[in-house]
């Protein structure tokens, strides 16, 4: 039984790697830090339409396609179906 479960776990790990959900959760030490990031990231949005600007670009922005990201506060963990 243990071997079967380990095989199944391995299969699930491969499935997850091949089909990512396309989301990430980031935690900050303080609420004010999250507010700063959220405001900075969403500063280039104009009434729902994306502007050509990009908030604080990094060397990885293009590779990560940050211009297509949506940034928002997450639900409380107990309200997420993990």
From TrEMBL:
A Pfam family found in this protein is PHM7_cyt
UniProt xrefs under InterPro entries = CSC1/OSCA1-like_cyt
The CSC1/OSCA1-like cytosolic domain extends over 3-82
Look up the domain of life of the source.
Answer: Eukaryota
Protein name from the UniProt record = Transmembrane protein 63A
Question: What species was this sequence derived from?
Answer: Sarcophilus harrisii
Taxonomic lineage:
Eukaryota, Metazoa, Chordata, Craniata, Vertebrata
* GN (gene name): TMEM63A
